[in-house]
Amino acid sequence: MKITEIAFSCYPVTDIARARAFYEGVLGLKVTMDHEIPGGAHWIEYDIGTGTLGLGRAEGWKPGSDGCTVGLEVEDFDSAIAALKSTGTPFGMEPFETPVCHMAMVKDPDGNTLISHKRKPGHH
C-alpha cells in the first residue's frame, strides 16, 4: 500500500443547519459539495487550499472533543482570534505561542475541537 495524500478530514455533527451557520457564518468557509444520503445521512465538504474539510451526520457517528483535531491555518492570527471571540465561540484553549507557531483551540456547536493556527515565518 502507498498512501499519496490525506483526502479529507471530517467532523461528525448533529445539526447540519447549525453546523453550517458556524463553519460558513463564523469561519467564512464556502461549501464545495452538499449531499443528502438516503436514510437521513448528510455530507458537506469545504475545500481549503489543497485539502478538504468534511462535515457529516449519520446514524452512530457522534461528535466529541477528544477525537482528531483539524488545524486551520489563518492569514492573520490576531484578527482571527478577535473574530472568534466577537461571535462568542467557546475556547478550549486560549491563544498561545510555540517556537514555530501561534494557536488556539475552539469548539464548534457540537463540541468538536478546531485549532486556529498561524505558522511563524520559515516554518511549514
Q: What would you note in describing this structure?
A:
The chain has 124 residues and is of the alpha/beta class. The protein has one domain: 2,3-Dihydroxybiphenyl 1,2-Dioxygenase, domain 1, CATH 3.10.180. Helices cover 17% and strands 40% of the residues. It contains 2 helices and 8 strands, in the order E-H-E-E-E-E-H-E-E-E. The chain has helices at 16-26, 77-86, and strands spanning 9-12, 33-37, 41-48, 51-57, 70-73, 91-97, 101-107, 113-119. It has a 4-stranded mixed beta sheet, with no helix packed on it. Strand 2 (33-37) and strand 3 (41-48) form a beta hairpin. It is globular, with a radius of gyration of 15 Å. It starts with 8 loop residues before the first strand and ends in a 5-residue tail after the last strand.
